[in-house]
Design a protein that fits this description.
Order of helices and strands of chain A: EHEEEHEEEHEEE
Oligomer: heterodimer
Distance between the termini of chain B: 41 Å
Order of helices and strands of chain B: EEHEEEEE
Number of helices of chain B: 1
Number of helices of chain A: 3
Shape of chain B: globular
Largest sheet of chain A: 6 strands, antiparallel
Radius of gyration of chain B: 12 Å
Structural class of chain A: alpha+beta
Structural class of chain B: mainly beta
Shape of chain A: elongated
Strand content of chain A: 35-45%
Helix content of chain B: 10-25%
Largest interface: A-B, 33 and 19 residues
Strand content of chain B: 35-45%
Number of strands of chain A: 10
Amino acid sequence: MFEGRVVEDEISLDELVSKVIRRTAGTESGGLVVFLGYVKGAVGDAKVNQLIYEAYEPYASDKLREIATSYSKVEGVTSVLIYHRAGGLRPGDHTIYVVVSAKNRELAFKVAREALERAKKEVPIFKLERRSDGDYWIIGDGLRVRKG
Amino acid sequence: MAVVKVKLFSVFSECAHGGREVKVSLSVSKPTVGDVLRALSKESDCLDVVASGESVEVILPRKNARIPATILINGAAGGLDQSVSEEDEIALLPIPSGG
């Protein structure tokens, strides 16, 4: 099972994990790796009030799907799911889900890490950080440009 | 004569006057992406698109910022020599910040 898309609502981790196990039980997979991103509450001394994620659809979902399905050809990988939320999110809210099952744990961790890095670098999703000291556009992995 | 729409995302969207898109007027009927970006820079006092080879950067003079950018034409990476029409969707994007 290889899927990727932008979602609006939070996803139940329990349901996600159960879905993957149901689909891969009976194969040589015996474990899965989950990465769950969530909104930080602070950046340095500033309090984060909200993160607003804007996805350039349908291309953001297309790219998430492309990344996930690229692993269907990798020997030993049995499932990759990548879901990214869009919209206004508060501290503690889920932002991104990466779930990978594979024949061995080394491969599962490796693919999960790689899929996450690709999702952050390749998918046209952009965030605005609303903080106690102002609003900042996040560019790439950490450059901040003040809004306004 | 062509009027091409350019979608601006993230920090670049501040140059779209409250919207998401700017309309760029060109005197040629089949402009290239490079033509569109040059016209956009000329018409805007908010951003300046600089191309060097195939890499593109956007200068935001009011923010004293220079930001690497990507161009997508109908969702696919576009080169500066690629021709576009009024029906094409052109997007100017900074480095993604998902996750």
